[in-house]
Amino acid sequence: MFNRAVIPIVLALVIPDFVQARDLESSYSAVDIEKLQITVGVGEIRLESGSDDAIRVEIELKPSDDAGADVDDLIDAAEVVASSSNGRLELQVVFPGGGKDSDIQQDWRVYAPQALGAMIEMGVGVLDVRGLEGGVEAKVGVGETRVDVPGGALRLNTSVGEVSVHNGAKNIGDVDLDSNIGEVSLRVDGNDIESERSMFVGSRLSWSGDGEDDIDVRVNVGEIVVRID
Asked: What is the mean pLDDT of the chain?
């Protein structure tokens, strides 16, 4: 009988260089600004009412899950571009020299005066708007939309995802909710409004108040939940 030597096997692991994240901060005067427009490819936007008359922006940039090899260079070169006209301030992160914005996840935290309205366009991600009363228009490709505001008209459109809304019912007009594949629900002052179902897979609902702020929410695939009180 003989002893077998136990030989440890050491695996050489190739550890890639750490892929950096980067923070961007900026501030803009809200004088003569009525609407804030933000465009994001992939990421998250949290937009809420602030305590002053400025628009303050904090953005974290980090690689998306399927980012390309040149993601570090894209993050290093990124900058926030702002333009304003006709009472609208437009903000967007751009990558000088090109590159796919889908390689970068953009997480925005924005504080704006309560009276402002918002116009948001997002490819994939989460949108969360709180406290603004100047109205919200949003288009999200895939993701979740959450809106909790004291008032204002709403026009929300999502291809795939869920939309939840709470509106303070200051001046609500026509409410139209439509999901091609999914459920819709509406509660007004504690009372559930019955929806209309079409083709067994989708549902729609219409209701009218006495005000002028319309709420229009449309989802291709997903659920819509709206509460007004």
From this structure: 88
